[in-house]
Structure formats: C-alpha cells, structure tokens
Amino acid sequence: MTERNLLIDPCWSAKDLGEPLPSRPHAVSVALPRWEDVIAYEEKVPACINSLKAIYPRFGFNPFVAEVARKSLEFHGESNKSSWPYPNRASALSAQEYCLRKNSDCFSKIEDFLGVSCLIIDQKNTSSAKAFWQHTGLGLSSREAAIALGKEKKPLTSDGDYAREELIKRLANIYNCDKCLIRLHRSGMAALTTIISAINCIKGTSSTLQIGFPYVDVLKLPQIIFQGSDLIIKTKLNHIKEELDKKNPAALIIEIPSNPLLQCVDLISISKLAKEKNIPVIVDDTIGSSLNVHLTPYADVIFSSLTKSFAGRGDILAGSTVISPYSKWKKEIAEIIPKVALSTLSDSDAIELELTSRDVKDRLKRLNQSCLKLKEKLETKKEISKVLHPQYCKNFNSLLKKGGGYGCLLSFELKGGIEESKRVYDSLRVNKGPSLGTNFTLVCPYVQLAHFKELKWAESCGVSEHLLRVSVGLENEDELWSRFNSVI
Questions:
Q1: CA-to-CA distance for 164 and 112, rounded, in angstroms?
Q2: How much is the pLDDT for 477?
Q3: Fold entry, domain 360-485
Q4: Which option is the CATH number for 157-356: 1.20.1250.20, 1.10.101.10, 3.40.640.10, 3.30.70.1030?
Q5: pLDDT at 1 over 70
Q6: 249, 211 in Cβ contact below 8 A?
Q7: Is it true that domain 63-140 has CATH number 3.30.70?
Q8: Mind listing the pLDDT tens digit for each residue in 160-197?
Q9: Which Pfam families does the UniProt record give (predicted)?
C-alpha cells in the first residue's frame, strides 16, 4: 500500500469514501467525506459499508481481523454463527461470560484457530458479543491477526519486551511517577475495563458516576458491561455533593477535558470531596494529555488512549493506566491490576508505538499551537455561533503545567444549523472521519457518529447534532486556515 500524504492530499471528496486514514494496513480511521456518508454508515447502507477499507478497530473488524473471524467459522463448520477473535482464552472467556449473563440460553463456544481464541456465538446473541468487543476494547489487534494469518512476520518477544519497557519509561517521565505504577493495555477502553474491574475488587460491585458529558464508550462501558453508571451534567459542586451522598458510587469517572464539548470540571474540588467520601477518582486524559496538565494529585488512576496524540500516526490501538503516587489506594490497585488485566499490548503493537511516540513531546507542542491558532481564527468568523476549546476554562487552566497547552481538539457550531453544517462539512478540503490526535487534521460530525440513535438525548445534554469536531494536525497553519476560511 503506497502511503498517501494526507497533509497535502487529504481524503475529503466523494471519491475518497472508505479510504483508510492513514493509507496503512492497520489504520484506525476511515474516510467519510460527505455528511450523507456518515448517515449511510450509521444506517448500515450496504453501498457505504461495502466501500469501507478500514474502520475504527473497536467499532468493527479491520480486514485482517475479519479474515481470521471468517476462516475460523469455516474451519470449525459454523458458517451460520459469528466469530469474535481475542488474543487469549481469558479474554474470550470474559466475553462469553458476559453473553451468557445477557442470555443464559445462548449458544456459544470458544475455539482456537491459528493461535487465536475465537468466541463463536449464534446470530441471535451476536449483538451481545459485539457490545463486549466494542466497549471493552479487549479484542485481537489487526497486527496480531496479520501475524496469525502469516501475512506479517512475528517479532521477537525480546523486542516486544524492550519496546514495552521503553514506553513505560516514557510514560513515567510524562507522569513523574515510578514505572511500577504504569501498565500498558491494548486500547484505552481496555485500560478503563481493567480499572473498573480493579475498583470493583476494592469497593464492591456498585455503579460508577460520570461527571460531565463524556466520550460515548467511557459512559457505555460501565453502563452496559459492568454494574451501571449515572451521568451528572450539572457540574456545580453542591449538586455533585448531593449526588455522591445519594448514590455512593464505586468511583467517579471524569474526562479532562470532555469530548466533544472541551469543558473541564473543577477536578481539584471534586477530588477533595471524593477523598472525604472515600470514593476513587478515575480520570481520562486522552484529550488534555498529561504533557499539558498535572493530574496525579487529584486522580487515583489516570487512563489514556495512546492511539490518539501519543501515537500520532493513526495506525496503532493502545492504552495505558497510571496509578497516582498520591492515591490512598495506590498499593491495593497496583496489586490488583495485574490480576484482573486480561491481556497486555502485543509485541508488534508495542514496537510500533515505541517508534512512533519518540517525538511525542515536540509533536504535541505543535498540535497545541496549531489548534489554538485555528481556534482563534474561527472565532473571527461571523458565520460561527460558538467555538468550543479549553483556553479560557478556569478549571482547565488550574491544572496546566508550565509550558503546557490545550491539546489538539476543538469543536464549533454554525449559525445556519444542520444544513449549513452539512454544506461546510462536505466542502472542507481536510480528512474527514472518526478518531483524533492524528498527525493529519480530522473533522467529523461527532454527535451523528457517536449518538446517532440518541440525538434528542444528546441535545438535552447541551450537545448539538450539527456540531463539527476538529482534531488539528501538523499541516502548514496558513494552508489549513485557508481550507476552513474558503468554505465558512
């Protein structure tokens, strides 16, 4: 596959539908260049779905994973079932147990194929298998699938061990903590799955509490896979205190800042309140990045999707957990996480992540700067009703490190409503698809992708269906602005 230079030749027009972003075999995003493509994708229109050469790995199967799944069914003579490949038997068993909890009468079995553990399940219960795959992020990676199929070479275990050690050193430097407090995972959601499992061992199996409108799966994982999760949209401290007294959750889950509204709650005050009530605080720093913000004094555990700006390249799925050195549960969590973690980052994915994250500090500074400049220019456009970005958020600024910035993400709304958003989206000469943190700019109508079946609910939470989310990349800043300016 010849790699397309997405900085100067973006996938933005109708002919680019379904192109992998980036043009690599393990791409985690896919081009949805027109608004109608986004709707067709959500409605599972065959012409759109059949055009996709890639997909975000938790939302569907990379072609390599799809091939493993298909061949496993053929090998075991189960063509009328679905197959869900996992890296080991423990992960597949966890998926099977979930499906049996949802329906004790479902047909399911775990079969080994090419060294992969496949959960094979009847069509009636495939939706449960899909939910577990999507929300937990524990599935087989595309690199593992390619190796199983003999299409890519298996790396030396020693090379994988070295890469993981280097990555943990890199993260320890960012978070200013001991290496023993850090663990790598196969996705950001796998990291959160592990944290919730660990907290349940300490606090018991009660529901969690999400503060502020969150990224879709950060909310759905505890709601669907675990014991439930409540959502607080009103983030004033007195309201949060009332909810904590009423619900006594197992943990609080907070994004810094939130996706896609880029808002930031008063983490410092909430942390103090949670400590008084003996409730752990879990923080997602994927967007804000702990290169920019100082979170360990206020969180008990921090998780991150390393797929995003840490990797940058857009073709590696990975995650991390960092236990705060200040947490009262530090020792307990550190002991439990290895026991409940079902897998780790694979050798092949770790090797690629180590390579592509070597420049993360310098690259993130550039992303911070480019995003801020685009935000300031968008604010000058009378056609835009609001630009969402954490620059003037007092709560975010209270966490800012010296020399830190605001990340690569912004969102905006147009005065013309959904029809104007459609026009601008279709006309923008930038890459368009899901995910964020890539070296190339990515735009998407986020709410249409994340909340297509619950648009009214999202609107009731203050999240507009015509909001456009922008992950700013490393394009020339003047060139990038000209692309936006020419269509707004």
A1: 27
A2: 98
A3: Aspartate Aminotransferase, domain 1 (3.90.1150)
A4: 3.40.640.10
A5: no
A6: no
A7: yes
A8: 999 999 999 999 999 999 999 999 999 999 999 999 99
A9: Cys_Met_Meta_PP
